[in-house]
Amino acid sequence: MGNIYMIGSQKGGTAKTTTTLNLAYCLQMMGKKVLAVDFDSQANLTTCFGIEDTGELENTIGHLMMAEMEDAKRPAVKRYIKMKDGVDFIPSSIYLSVVDAKLRLEMGTEKILSGILEPLREKYDYILIDTCPSLGTLTINALAAADEVIITVNPQLLAMMGMQDFLRTVGKIRKRINPKLGIAGILLTMCETRTKLCRVLTEEVEENFQEQIRVFETKIPNTVKVGESIYYNLPVVQYSPKASAGVAYRRFAKELISYEG
Predict the structure, then answer these.
(1) What are the residues whose beta carbons fall under 8 Å from the beta carbon of 68, sequence distance 6 or more?
(2) What is the Cα–Cα distance from 95 to 32, expressed in whole angstroms?
(3) Are 35 and 120 contacting, i.e. CB atoms less than 8 angstroms apart?
(4) Which runs of consecutive H residues, i.e. helices, occur in 81-186?
(5) pTM for the full model?
(6) Distance CA 100, CA 86 (A)
(7) Nearest CA-CA partner of 131 in 57, 61, 225
(8) pLDDT tens digits, residue range 115-168?
(9) Could you give the 3-state DSSP secondary structure of residue 67?
(10) Disulfide engineering: 14 pairs with which of 9, 18, 77, 233, CB 3.0-4.6 Å?
(11) Radius of gyration of the chain from its Cα atoms, rounded to whole angstroms
(12) Residue 125: how many CB atoms within 10 A of its CB?
């Protein structure tokens, strides 16, 4: 049975999509069967997998969610799961925003995503959910479906300010909806280790949270290679394997697996 990880943060700009993409490829390179789920209406992860015109897609996570809400027949797996370079993924599109609006109007919809992913557990070692930067109904669905959360934090003041709110939301979901939900740890991303602010805020995260939440030893550095790889719709571990970020993401994948063991 595969583990379901949500990669989340209340703030945007914390490298959630970049982390989801690169972690998926790193785990696949280690021989794991991986499914990445784009659960953001901006569909950035889908674009990273090489699908540029996401609006034309007819089988996305949004369409699956809508089918579940309307008790319609779910399409065959091969229609909505795509593959690139050995990594399976379920794409997204702006249609997910329509689903988001509908979720707000209906009761008992917190486990719609869980109902979609649970039957897929036996096919994968890892299911990774890339999420939008909010604490709305989509995020609640992702938390309800996940076993654990990987919290990405950009060590800048504004990115860190929302972490307590996010942790409170995780606690509420664990108490009310998903008792098995845990926090895998905090992953510091986009680290400018040469700057004093980054060093101070990194130390602050470790001092404030290390007693209650694991702070991963791996830190993802900020490098131009990440931006270049996204432009070419590639993970940095493929685009520039020897780049510091590529090395760090491979190290993080190994750390995550060893943490499970």
Answers:
(1) 74, 112, 115, 116
(2) 30
(3) yes
(4) 95-105, 112-117, 137-145, 157-161, 163-176
(5) 0.94
(6) 30
(7) 61
(8) 999 999 999 999 999 998 887 899 999 999 999 999 998 877 555 667 778 888
(9) helix
(10) 9
(11) 17
(12) 17
Lowest mean pLDDT segment, chosen from 92-101, 198-207, 221-230, 233-242: 198-207
**Torsion of Cα atoms, 174 then 150 then 87 then 109, to 10°:** 30
Amino acid letter at 128?
Answer: L
Kindly state the tokens that stand for 145: 């479906």
Residue with tokens 């009761």: 107
Distance CA 173, CA 259 (A): 23
Place of tokens 């089918």: 67
CA of 229: how far to CAs of 48, 50, 221, 234, 243, in Å? 9, 12, 14, 5, 11
- Widest CA span in the chain: 55
Please state whether 85 falls in left (phi above 0), alpha (psi between -120 and 50) or beta.
left
Spatial contact of 168 and 151, defined as CB atoms under 8 Å apart: no
